[in-house]
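Researcher: Sequence of RidA family protein follows. Predict its structure.
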Amino acid sequence: MTDITRIEQNARRSRASVFGDLVFLAGHVADTKTADITQQTKEVLAKIDDMLARAGTDKSRLLSVQIWLKTMDDFDAMNAVYDAWVVPGHVPTRACGKVELADPGYRIEVIAIAARS
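Model: Prediction complete. Tokens:
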């Protein structure tokens, strides 16, 4: 049986779960809720980099990314940051949509799945 490793777990969720060679990331949001979409996207992607490293992998191993935006008006600015962040030739599958986020200050939330080996 393969063990499950949970990173930053509390009573409600884990920030990441590792099962075998797969890493599942929870939805990550920015720390600066007053920032514009460019800054919030940079903060979120930095958190994803950190979680992936803690789980023993990196963004070149991403399999799937889901991006939730507060408004599709942020789509182009978010993509400018995202496109510079992904590893050319190793881009994951991706979906992006507009949702009502948990706090009105959040402009973006990102969920991801990555491989470890």
